[in-house]
């Protein structure tokens, strides 16, 4: 701005000098002086301005270097990199365990988030001696990559790289109840080989519907011997406990610098700034929380979250993620059992100064905040946690029991399965049942996994409710084999979110995750929606949207719903709303299965069979889109098998042809699933 102003100021005298030949010597002298001064100033100024440019160039170079995991590995003497594609934190946890294992074999490992690095550098990994890339890849949704592995997945699809010098191994995390079991792990394994990389150990397929921890341990105990054989190395000793973080207790700290539950930026809950996402959730006010069921033991609820002024946009079929908090009574018990002041302000600092992950959760914070908002204290702990904690058991029998459960022996696996997994013992229950086990609370906080966001299918349409997101959920509560009452973290936390309680707002940290579960582009396309129980949630949004489209004068195709619940007068969710939509003609068919109102159980698949001719006509002649939401383990599978039967019968096809027909519907986006197990 200064240079432009200066040039504008001197332009008239220069122009005048060319036109007027009757200037005095004084005028000429003054003009020459001004011109000289300007010339000196101009060049002097340029030199001064060039100086700050140099750091910018260095910064770009620095950023490029930071995004290179190769440079980082060379700098820190690592030769094994373990990438993780993780949605709930389990794949990241497995990656950390594998990277820590490496030291036993005279190797050095590092866990890495593919989102933070340039994966095209994989072709350069052979520059490092005895190098290996391991991939712990979870599959999310219907065969999709996790959010942090999306860029890596896109690169793999488009890459034409020569990875002939790369040695790799893949462990996939999936769930057999889903249609595309371990799709991401299988794809990464296959694609790396296609690009010329050398697989040094077979693909591992973990199944979360069975025992994911056991699957991982079994794969891991065979993986390391294969690594040893390939590189000609031997184990240097037994597995040992190595702390990853060091404790720093803050006795004199500015409380404005202490995290109180924020997921990312300090004070982000006090000073909210869009865009809102997993690292920067929006604090939504709960404006409604009502019980949906009329009777029964369960508590089914409808919540409404106000997203006014958040700039959050959503579409019918998207998911809302909420960050819950652990029950304060459980948190307090940790303080009592471990004899710790939970309000102590502390930091856990990574001992590896080169690591991108400086802390296991936001620090500095208090133990109370960490146990309430950041750590998972209600799920059964994995075997590595038991192994690390065993050293603190003063009773030898308890120590041996913990070590045995953490071992890879058949007896150890069976004991872990029965005593921890099937008994649903969380870390608090283990501390209660092993009186001599009293670990330092900071080590416990280091070992526990992060408390994850919970996803719910949005039960509203943004066309009708642009400033609100609706949730439909059922509280989880059950008695374990040990007689303890276990409660679902998020659903019980949401249950207690009463609007305007004691004159203050009930707030829910949330963000929206986009989904592929979408209404057809043409409103005239028929839809068949199948969603028993809380699987009704996205269809409430779909029906609201179809009603809105009809009000706008659009031609709306047949809208068919198959809904199921236990009893008509107990847990028939959104009964009045559905009846109204049906009466208004928006919902052209309302088929409801009450499973326990008669001697023989009736489910949604039975109603589909009953209406099979109409179903076939809608699908084959009307090009209807099919949507299934709810339980993946039984319902979704039974519904899919029913469609195979209908297609085979009315399409005059063999079983394999009918299967191919339904699979093609899925490929074309005409058969969509939003299921959970």
TrEMBL record:
The keyword ATP-binding does not apply. One of its GO terms (biological process) is response to hormone. Residues 80-224 form the Flavodoxin-like domain. One of its GO terms (cellular component) is cytosol. Its cofactor is FAD; FMN. One of its GO terms (molecular function) is flavin adenine dinucleotide binding. The chain crosses the membrane at residues 22-43. Its EC number is 1.6.2.4. Keywords: Endoplasmic reticulum, FAD, Flavoprotein, FMN, Membrane, NADP, Oxidoreductase, Transmembrane, Transmembrane helix. Pfam families: FAD_binding_1, Flavodoxin_1, NAD_binding_1. InterPro entries: CysJ-like_FAD-binding (IPR003097), FAD-bd_FR_type (IPR017927), Flavdoxin-like (IPR001094), Flavodoxin/NO_synth (IPR008254), Flavoprot_Pyr_Nucl_cyt_Rdtase (IPR001709), Flavoprotein-like_sf (IPR029039), FNR_nucleotide-bd (IPR039261), NADPH_Cyt_P450_Rdtase_alpha (IPR023173). Residues 279-520 form the FAD-binding FR-type domain. It comes from the Eukaryota. This is NADPH--hemoprotein reductase.
